[in-house]
């Protein structure tokens, strides 16, 4: 496959004005972990909020899917008391997705053993397994229900992105693409389910029309290191995150770079990326153990929060490893962050009331 030269940066890259702090954020709940201080044993690799904004799920090194009520957590609690239900899994988890059309009763997961599994959250039992990545770690999986039925996609260390049909017992492969390195992220567009974004270790991100998986409809070539996350911001705009320490926003139609975002630290780890589509806010973690919030209009962060406990000192070993916005709300928002020590923090945001002189 021939790759184009890096596209010219969009003239919109010029920021219209200095970043404005239009939101008030505060910590509304903290869920501590028994592994706190033993940062590696409960690292949270993924957080997923359901479509109604009522539940969130976490997964990671501890080999557990934990489900929580998002809106009724006490200010300070622990996993043991706050967790609504949990499922023990056979391998470390890298990705979780609520399966569309299941009324919140089925959770898809991808793990370090190269297996994609669906769990019935009521029985806490697996109802589907797919092991087609040669035992290589699956970094990411996602669903689309815009194609007449639910289909899945997964990306793996084996360098492939595979689309599959969970209605078949072994998840029949309906399309596959081989890349020049590990596939770190796959995401279907929630605006147009025929588009699929793929982030790769070859420093590029790709967008495919899944109806004709011959060549990508867009190639984003601008990161200097691995593209670890891809996220659709709207029907034509994609956010990417790289281990070169920056986020980038791209136009899928002309393949141009709209804006680059810098401030957080990311050189070698997965630190999470999530977009709140209603108001164009972007959340990511950092190897500095901080949560960063960007507004899509400005390349500098509008809010930064230290993840260390109050009165604690920053540790070079801890980092914010996962992040997810609730998509519910307009002038109020909820962001969930998870750390490498297993701590979860819930952040509530509210748009400031702007006043003018009479």
UniProtKB/TrEMBL annotation:
A GO term from the CC aspect: cytosol
Organism per entry: Helianthus annuus
Biased composition (Pro residues): 1-10
Protein's UniProt name: Putative transducin/WD40 repeat-like superfamily protein
WD repeat positions: 220-260
Keywords: Cytoplasm, Flowering, Nucleus, Repeat, WD repeat
Pfam families per record: WD40 (PF00400)
Position of the signal peptide: none
Residue segments, region Disordered: 1-21
UniProt keyword Repeat present: yes
Main location as per UniProt: cytoplasm
Swiss-Prot/TrEMBL GO biological process terms: flower development; regulation of protein-containing complex assembly; response to UV-B
Subcellular location: Cytoplasm, Cytosol; Nucleus
């Amino acid at each position: 496959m021939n790759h184009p030269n890096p596209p010219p940066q969009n003239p919109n890259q010029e920021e219209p004005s200095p970043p404005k702090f239009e939101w008030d954020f505060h910590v509304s709940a903290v869920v501590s972990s028994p592994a706190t201080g033993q940062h590696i044993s409960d690292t949270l690799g993924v957080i997923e909020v359901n479509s109604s904004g009522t539940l969130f799920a976490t997964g990671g090194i501890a080999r557990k899917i934990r489900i929580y009520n998002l809106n009724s957590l006490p200010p300070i609690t622990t996993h043991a008391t706050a967790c609504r239900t949990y499922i023990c899994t056979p391998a470390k988890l890298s990705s979780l997705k609520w399966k569309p059309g299941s009324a919140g009763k089925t959770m898809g997961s991808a793990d370090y053993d190269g297996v994609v599994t669906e769990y019935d959250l009521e029985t806490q039992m697996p109802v589907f397994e797919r092991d087609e990545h040669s035992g290589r770690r699956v970094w990411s999986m996602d669903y689309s229900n815009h194609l007449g039925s639910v289909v899945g996609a997964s990306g793996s260390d084996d360098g492939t992105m595979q689309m599959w049909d969970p209605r078949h017992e072994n998840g029949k492969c309906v399309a596959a693409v081989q890349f020049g390195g590990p596939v770190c992220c796959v995401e279907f567009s929630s605006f147009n389910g025929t588009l699929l974004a793929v982030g790769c270790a070859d420093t590029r991100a790709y967008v495919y029309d899944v109806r004709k998986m011959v060549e990508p409809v867009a190639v984003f070539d601008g990161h200097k290191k691995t593209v670890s996350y891809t996220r659709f911001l709207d029907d034509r705009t994609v956010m990417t995150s790289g281990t070169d320490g920056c986020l980038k926003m791209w136009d899928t139609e002309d393949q141009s770079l709209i804006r680059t975002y810098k401030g957080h630290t990311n050189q070698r780890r997965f630190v999470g990326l999530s977009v709140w589509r209603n108001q164009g806010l972007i959340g990511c973690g950092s190897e500095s153990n901080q949560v960063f919030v960007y507004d899509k209009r400005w390349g500098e962060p509008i809010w930064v929060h230290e993840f260390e406990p109050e009165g604690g000192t920053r540790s070079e070993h801890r980092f914010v490893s996962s992040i997810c916005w609730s998509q519910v709300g307009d002038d109020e928002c909820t962001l969930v962050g998870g750390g490498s020590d297993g701590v979860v923090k819930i952040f509530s945001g509210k748009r400031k009331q702007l006043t003018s002189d009479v």
